[in-house]
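Every protein is a chain of amino acids, and every chain bends into a shape of its own. The protein below has been through that process, and both of its lines are reproduced in full.
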Amino acid sequence: MTTSNTPLVSVVIPAYNAERFIGKTLESILLQTYPHFEVLVVDDGSTDGTADIIKSFAVHDSRFQLLQKTNGGVATARNMAIRNASGEFIAPCDSDDVWYPDRLKAQVECMMQSDESVGLVYCWSKIIDEDDQPIVDITHSYEGRVFADLVYSNFLGNGSCALIRRSCFDAVGEYNGATTPCEEWDLYIRVAERYEVRLIPTILVGYREVLTSLSANHYRMEGAFASLLREIRNRHPQIPSSILRVAKGSYYLYLTGKSNRRSRYGTSLRYLGVCLFSDPLRLLSSEFHSTLAKAIVRFLAHPVTSRIWKDDRMWRTMRRKLHVPVATQESNEAEKEKTSATETPLRLFDRLHNSRMKRFRDEANAVLTADRQQAHGK
């Protein structure tokens, strides 16, 4: 029963052939310090033992429910769960990710302290590998009206770190399968068009990167991103094309890392070319130069290194043995704006990028305001 102090949270999980990790995922939810939740797991036509694992949790805890359907993709599975959900808040989770104990408690408390202008609360995440070893921390720090920032980059980083008001889905619609595997990013953007976003600056999610997963397929992601940009343009025809071009440059730089991890170094160089063509300012970016150098070195060394390790999993194992520290993926605009004019020329990118992002935010907010007024007949 939902009360004003303990609103029900509906955890929605799409699962397809997820028997390898779904048990760990459900265990992490079971250990949440916020107890008032229901878990709806949609078996999307699995052919392995996924359903049996889910049933074993449902037998011992009535908060867990198994829903089953023929295979239709992650977006349709998420939507099925949401339609059957009873909670005031929706907490999406992927079937191979894990939550740390205070994930729901911290985000529900933040929601309860906010008014209905806040539609989404997210937290920081840690990317982990298939052996639960850390790879990189995701610690972006955006809050408030973040539409332009979300168009530029999916700073939430994954589909398991958000708590969303159920009423948001009534206002902005469901997950859009046309943008899979960017369907959660597309949803976040649509929420940000109407609502504010809040952050819990704590790592509360372990986002698992599996080499065989859909999100590891950088070719599929390339097409999904194109669909995402088309959806934004269709909803907001007046949005400046410069925002979308710069977003494309950022995304293709991200795809370079994906293709590197799959040893597709020629593709990585192509992606860097698209990045630079979309956003020439990247010539001033130290990140671009370091990524380019790594891609060239790996491309040239691949005939030799491929005889040493076959895939990224083997490289990660060796890295752990050498005790190479985990990286941190951080993009705090407030900190970047403190950059001194006396720093090296490559730091100039940060200052110029901050300046144009301020302009993009103003332009995007003006477009959103005009579109809302038109929708209300003003």
Notes: Residues 179 and 223 are 8 Å apart (CA to CA). The two ends are 42 Å apart (CA to CA). Residues 348-375 form the longest helix (28 residues). Residues 330-344 have pLDDT under 50 and may be disordered.
